[in-house]
Please model this.
Amino acid sequence: MLKTLTKPDTLIAAALMAFAAYLMWHATALPIGWDGARGPGGGAFPFWLSAIMFLAAAGIFMRSLLAGVRPEDLKPFFEPGMLGPVLAVTLALGLTIFLMPIIGAYLAIPLFMFWYLRFYGRNGWPVTLSLTLITPVALFFFFEVALLILLPKGITEPLFFPLYAMFF
Amino acid sequence: MEILSLLGQGFATSLMPLNIGIVIVGVTLGLFIGAMPGLGSVNGVAIVLPLTFIVPPASAIIFLAALYYGAMYGGAISSILLGIPGSSTAVATTFDGRPMAQQGKAGLALIAAAGASFVGGTISVILFTIFAAPLADFALKFGPAENFALVLLAFTTFVGLGGDDALKTIAMICLGLVLSTVGLDLITGQPRLVFFDMPGFYAGISFLVLAIGVYGIGEVLWTLERSRIAPTVTAAKVTYAELRSAIVTLARTWKTMTFGSVMGFFVGMLPAAGATPASLMAYGIAKSTSKNPETFGKGNIEGVVAPETANNAASTGSLLPMLSLGIPGSPTTALLLGGMVMWGLMPGPMLFSEQPDFVWGLISSLYTANLAAVLINLALIPLFVWALRMPFSVLCTMVLVLCIVGGFAPDQRMHDVWLILIFGIAGYLLRKADYPMAPLVLALVLGPVMEQSFRQALIAAQGDVTTFVTRPLSGMFIALACVFFLLPLAAKLRKHRHAVQSG
Model:
């Protein structure tokens, strides 16, 4: 029983059921039925669709439970040995996004690239350094100079004042 | 005749120097993206869309359409040279493309793929030109009830024809539709589903955030998990003699090509079908109607030609309902639609009367994109061979950095970048558990249209739900939707009865 409950298929269906229930609860903040002359209330569409999603997920959940553990369920959900790399890249991405408003995109992104290219991808120094150094320059000219979209700079903001003076 | 003069005016737009340049850049970029294993047109459009702010909206759409085209051509390159499909749309091309490469005929296979793509693209663009305006005219009669029924029909094709698990498809459609309601209510303006009272949710969840998450970060994680061993690249040279003999061989396959183009175009129009099933179907039919079917899978050139005409024709086909009805025929066109809405060019019948310059400019640009794609494809083959040797980690960093920056750029909010990461992880896990991603993205794009038309129709009918079935057109769409919806059930019943009879 525990094995059928902890199958990825069952777990994901259960998570979707929980999320659908949360969405249904959230949608009830606005009327979910007929709202006078304004027609269906603002909560109706999200509420009833979340309800259908809940039922669909419940169906998947029940089906998965009733099917028991079949041979194909025994093969690992992640390719053997590949969960580590996937987790490492995900965490590095999270850290990069976390650091962007603090140390600025122009430090956080090259740091990420440096780690990925050199330590994760095991590329040589020429590839690593050239990409790590060219990318921020290209980003600056494309987004800030051409599109006037300012990327977050955090504490590195003062370093950009001379550049602003030059280009704007 | 009227079509020809409109098309002529369109060429006046698409042959402007800026737009020619844009088509060339778009096609080239698309070819590279398509050629990279793991990245297809939908990933390319999702990742590159934020960069198109640099040109005016009309040119941006022309650029993305050119990229879409280029990616369809490019998919064949890695199918042939690596034996790994550049995207799912080029899976069928590996069946005979790879054996040809192993027999030392990689050059011939690449030329055949490019030539077939060109034929498929051209025939389908002609069909597109003929059908686009009449379909839009027809759609002018649609009211809210018809629009709702049509969107519903689009979703039920996923349940009936998508080939994925019906319950999982329904769950994803509903999730996408509910996520589209986050933010301010369209009619009353009240906030709803503002999770954890975070101000970032008041503006809603942009389709781009979901698309970059799922097709950018999710795709990289997905490919990362499967990319332990680097594949070997087959060398390919294209000589003039080969080019000439390839064209002669291609001409002999005109029946396969014509059939693949027409079928691909119509299959491509269906939201759930599209280029992947179209190419597989074309391959299957070419094989079963061939005089020597046993040579298929061993390097028969028709096995390259059939899927390549069909997948290019399907990509044009999927543009037709997007432009004329506002219902995208594929995830990639869903992103194009989202982009057009963002730029204030609402696709649908009104666009044809209000912005004819843009519509016909776009249609005529498909002709130029097609021509540019075949020429650039053939000219740059050595470059593709070189690019395919690029370490996978280099490609991954580029894509991930573009995802982060591209997700931030449109609204300049870190909130969106975090959402991209969350959608990326969730999309990756859901995809591993066989949940289809295309209906999720389509639902988020179509959600506002669906809800608005549903509520308007009900208000107009004073709450009478039968309005959806009593109006003839809407009733017809609903009836068709029911058929699609019940298809998986019928298939199951038949299988069950079969099992009972034979058991």
In short: Residues 2-73 of chain A form one domain. The CA atoms of residues 11 and 149 of chain A lie 42 Å apart.
